[in-house]
Amino acid sequence: KAGVTQTPRYLIKTRGQQVTLSCSPISGHRSVSWYQQTPGQGLQFLFEYFSETQRNKGNFPGRFSGRQFSNSRSEMNVSTLELGDSALYLCASSGRTSGDTGELFFGEGSRLTVL
Amino acid sequence: AQSVAQPEDQVNVAEGNPLTVKCTYSVSGNPYLFWYVQYPNRGLQFLLKYITGDNLVKGSYGFEAEFNKSQTSFHLKKPSALVSDSALYFCAVRDRGYSTLTFGKGTMLLVSP
Fold this sequence. Notes:
The structure holds 2 protein chains of 2 kinds. Chain A has no helices and 11 strands. By secondary structure, chain A is an all-beta fold. In chain A, strands 2, 4, 5, 6, 9, 10 and 11 form a 7-stranded mixed sheet that branches. A 4-stranded antiparallel sheet of chain A has the order 1-3-8-7, with no helix packed on it. Chain B starts with a strand and ends with a strand. Chain B is mainly beta. The model of chain B has no long low-confidence stretch (mean pLDDT 92). Chain B is built from no helices and 12 strands. Chains A and B meet through strand 5 and strand 10 of A and strand 5, strand 6 and strand 11 of B.
């Protein structure tokens, strides 16, 4: 079956702009998590959505937001972009319900460059 | 709070030699432990996981990992390294509640011919 799909794969923005990234999870998966990956900070958890509800949130400013739709597709938005937002943004899905092991399946990522 | 430490930024090994990538963890209860691999400009690929039971877990591409509860470690191993194993390896942990998956900083594995 198809894996996690992220779009766009690459994008370039300038400071002050906003960006929206999209993630389609594996069919049947209801949990979507977002991570930011940078060389200096590694993988930082942004947020997790389950059945359209934000279930967990990482330690990021309010400029970072997300949502999940009824078909489990998710979007994340970053407003007022800063140079430090340049990163690989990874989306991961799981079928995670109570008691599940929570194994994540990752997409290829969206590489954001802020100039 | 849960955390993962990967003490080595880089591990170098010659092809054909055994390899070990180290990982230690901290979690309040019993852990779920994972290893992922990332190739350049790609997402993370799942290698293996420890949930319960046998302390030696076998995974994809000939990798295995040993869970050691007393040392809170979950080292990744492979008996004979391949050049194609060269990649970035991440250890991850979460407890058995609803917490998120926490990743280590990653260890770059370089296998020389």
